[in-house]
Amino acid sequence: MPTRLKSRGNCWLARVVIDGQQVDSKVFPPGRSKGPEWMAAKTWEDQRKKELRELQARQRKTLTGFELLLAWGEAYLDHVGRTMSRITLTEKQTVLQALFGYCREAQLTGIEDLGRKTWTLFLTRVASERGPRRANVYRKNLLAAWNWAVDNALPGFPQISCPLERIRPFPVEAGVRYVPPEEDVIKVLRQAHGQDLVMLLTYYYTGARRGEVFRLLWSDVNFDSGSIRLVDHKGRDGSPRSRWVPMHPELAKALRWWQSVRPCVVDNVFMQEHCDGTLGDPFQQRSKLMPRLCRKAGVKPFGFHALRHKAAA
Question: DSSP 3-state assignment of 70?
Answer without folding.
Answer: helix
